Amino acid sequence: MRITRALRFGIGALAIAAVATACGGGSSKSAAQHAADGKLTVGIKFDQPGIGLRDKDGSFAGFDVDVAKYVAGKLGVKPENITFKEAPSAQRETLIQNGQVDFIVASYSITDQRKEKVDFAGPYYIAGQDLLVRADNTDITGPDALKGKKVCSVKGSTPAQNLEKNYKDAQLQTYDTYSLCIEALKSGAMDAVSTDNVILAGYAAQSPGQLKLVNKPFTTEKYGIGVKKGDKESRDKINDAVEAMISDGSWKSTLEKDFAGTGFQIPTPPTVDRY
Ligand code: GLU
Fold this sequence. Notes:
Layout: H1 2-22, H2 31-36, E1 40-44, E2 47-48, E3 52-54, E4 60-61, H3 63-74, E5 82-86, H4 92-97, E6 103-104, H5 112-115, E7 118-127, E8 129-134, E9 150-154, H6 158-166, E10 171-175, H7 178-187, E11 192-196, H8 197-206, E12 211-213, E13 221-228, H9 232-247, H10 250-258
Parallel strand pairs: 1-5, 1-6, 9-10, 9-11
Antiparallel strand pairs: 2-3, 3-4, 7-13, 8-11, 8-12
The protein binds glutamic acid.
């Protein structure tokens, strides 16, 4: 009798666990606790060459991927024990808040608005909003030349917010991902794509002679590693790892590797902000 009841309870608990998993219910453990268990789930971009890219064979490459691997290594987690999850711009805060990822390394600018929902380690890189146009374009020379132009950016991103607020003359269109914007730029449906220079440089390098970076950055985008709000332990450990990556030379060599042949100038590394 007792065994049957225990069995029934066990099956019930299993069913509840299955439902929770099916609903995408995240874990309540912190990033540091998951790392101590030897596994991490990290949010990255899947479609940004040089930054976070999922290759056809299912492997991942780019600076954010390398930063994630370096940080995971410092937390004691091997690269093969990292599960990479796609983190589109508009979903990043939610993924962290729901515990669906341990942390996010996805060209994620530190902003006061986002800090109301998540915390940031870093910055580990400083980018600037820029414009990408077709190679034969001569009239889009900077953000003040966007009057009446169709400009594509991504929902939930800081470049889209900036265009909406400060460049009202531009005809802004927002898509879910930058790769969709790039398609539209190539087809002629859009006149420009706007986001961070380092992201645009990656796309330009993939389409030489077809796309070009305007190369007039007009904002400062400090890339942080998003963690759950209030999880100081994980944030401190990630900050230690970012500092180590910069001081031991891996930061520079990794950027040089990820942007080899693109002509992209590697900037000076940032100073970690332990707010
Ligand atoms: N760094 C900007 C942001 O966090 C643009 C890049 C992106 O959307 O990932 O919104």
